Amino acid sequence: MSVDAVIKVGGSLLDWPELPARLSYYLKERAAERLVIVAGGGAAADVVRGLDRVHGLGEERAHDLALRALDFTAHVLASAVTGLDAVDDEAELSRVWGLARTPVFAPRRLLESDEKRSGRALPHTWDVTTDSIAAYVAQRLGAPELVLLKSAPLPRAGSAESAARAGLVDAHFPAVAQHVERVFLLNLRAPSAEPLRLVRSLDDR
Predict the structure, then answer these.
(1) Which segments within 101-180 are labelled E, that is strand?
(2) Distance CA 55, CA 153 (A)
(3) Model confidence over 169-184: pLDDT tens digits?
């Protein structure tokens, strides 16, 4: 199995009425590639975050519930956009590609399996969002490219570290993204936007 790129659809895009059309157009441009989509948590993850603040759920329980929220949003995205199928098993990826469709990968099962086998894959804190999870999935599946689809204007240049400081990605992202050959950010809400490639090192001082 060969994955060309992992595409993370930001949670802030999930309630955007134009998402199905814009994402379909983007995927059509890359139709010859084997892509895997990871959906952000969006409002579903915000519910978990809010309940954690109110009830003090604790990092472990909040982490588990947040991963379950990603399973939910994977199915929401697959239902909203034509040509997508939600899966939670690596073995299903080839089947979906064989149908000329694109898999939306719900990552909870993979992360839990990896942690049972070899220890904690990612920290169980709110410093880890779907940005880091998508980078982990890209690394785990051997994808040489990761694209984070965002809702925000982007700088002209940057590194993973500078993107984290600007709040464009989570604080843990630079540590995971270093294992992916090419990392891009793209503002999907701007039709003419160019992707920003995050360099491995940049003097931001």
Answers:
(1) 102-105, 145-150
(2) 35
(3) 999 999 999 999 999 9
DSSP string, 11-24: GGGTT-TTHHHHHH
Residue spans per domain, the chain: 5-197
What residues contact 53, with CB distance under 8 A and at least 6 apart?
none
How far apart CA 151 and CA 197 sit, in angstroms, is 16
Q: What is the mean pLDDT of residues 35-51?
A: 95
- pTM over the 0.90 mark: yes
Phi (first) and psi of residue 139, to 5 degrees: -60, -45
5-197 to CATH, choices 3.40.630.90, 3.20.20.70, 3.40.1160.10, 3.90.220.20: 3.40.1160.10
Gap between the Cα atoms of 134 and 132, Å rounded? 5
In 3-state terms, the chain is what percent helix, strand and coil (to 5)? Answer: 45, 15, 40
Residue 18, class by beta-carbon neighbours within 10 Å (0-12 exposed, 13-18 middle, 19+ buried)? exposed
Find out whether 189 and 151 touch, Cβ atoms under 8 Å.
yes
